[in-house]
UniProtKB/TrEMBL annotation:
Keyword flag Amino-acid biosynthesis: no
Residues binding tRNA, per UniProt: 230
Official protein name in the record: Epoxyqueuosine reductase
Function: Catalyzes the conversion of epoxyqueuosine (oQ) to queuosine (Q), which is a hypermodified base found in the wobble positions of tRNA(Asp), tRNA(Asn), tRNA(His) and tRNA(Tyr).
Gene: queG
Organism: Moheibacter stercoris
Keywords on record: 4Fe-4S, Cobalamin, Cobalt, Cytoplasm, Iron, Iron-sulfur, Metal-binding, Oxidoreductase, Queuosine biosynthesis, tRNA processing
Reactions mediated catalytically: epoxyqueuosine(34) in tRNA + AH2 = queuosine(34) in tRNA + A + H2O
Cell compartments where the protein resides: Cytoplasm
Amino acid sequence: MEILTNSEKQNRNLTPAEIIKNRAKELGFLSCGIAKAEFLEKEAPRLENWLKNDFHGKMSYMENHFDKRLDPRLLVENAKSVISLTYNYYPETFQRNDSFKIAKYAYGKDYHFVVKDKLKELLHFIQEEFGDINGRVFVDSAPILEHAWAAKAGLGWVGKNTLTLSKQKGSFFFLAEIILDAEFCYDQPIQTDHCGNCTKCIDSCPTEAILPNRTVDGSKCISYFTIELKESIPNEMKGKFDDWIFGCDVCQDVCPWNRFSISHQEKDFQPHEKLLNYSKSDWQEITEEVFKEIFQKSAVKRTKLEGFSRNIKFVST
């Protein structure tokens, strides 16, 4: 007589794709979808034009691996499936209103580490459950057009601000992928664009970086200036940052679909008390010691104190 655990009994009535999605949910992922690994034909001319228009600014790395960005089979040999996942980062508590602003995704521990650990656990589960499967996990760590894959996997549609939007969950979530050399039942993309005639993200962007044709001029984005740009911020941007000193959430904050955002349950994303309560003068006086204390494991460490202080000075004068 075959003895099955409760989990095995439950899984016996599910498809492999359903088993994967259930495990992803148990690991804390907000949603999970699977798409066929293939060349992104529609994205190729969009990416080419984006680069030709220099919308990547000084992010020269965006010019690299053009083919790999469009074809996951160049990242994993014999790739058949791309599993796309979302992980909620919408906080329960926010910075004080009269402070300099930090993007919500950077409130807690660097998401690269938090989400990647969970992805590795999910990949290990898939390999144990279904046998000899080769795969790689990605969290904003390789040339992957993650919003395109999320859309193909039915997790949402690409909004006018070029972020993945969900009617049920908004857009305050990280995207992650697992590319596998195994076939599964594939999800269908959402066919309807639920942005409609709304242009709130376009109208509210402080630097007019969001263009009408579902394109973001990255070289004008506040996140680009405060995170990616290593040199001095151009003087013509003075007075346009709306007090943002690391990243920017304006296009998400004004999006009507984000009224459905719910607070995350990830303890590693809990912000440092000083991050929430610091005033502008506190940030202006920040020392190396305090910077390391507040942002010890945060994505903000990318700028180092030098870049962070540059941003504060730029929005202060």
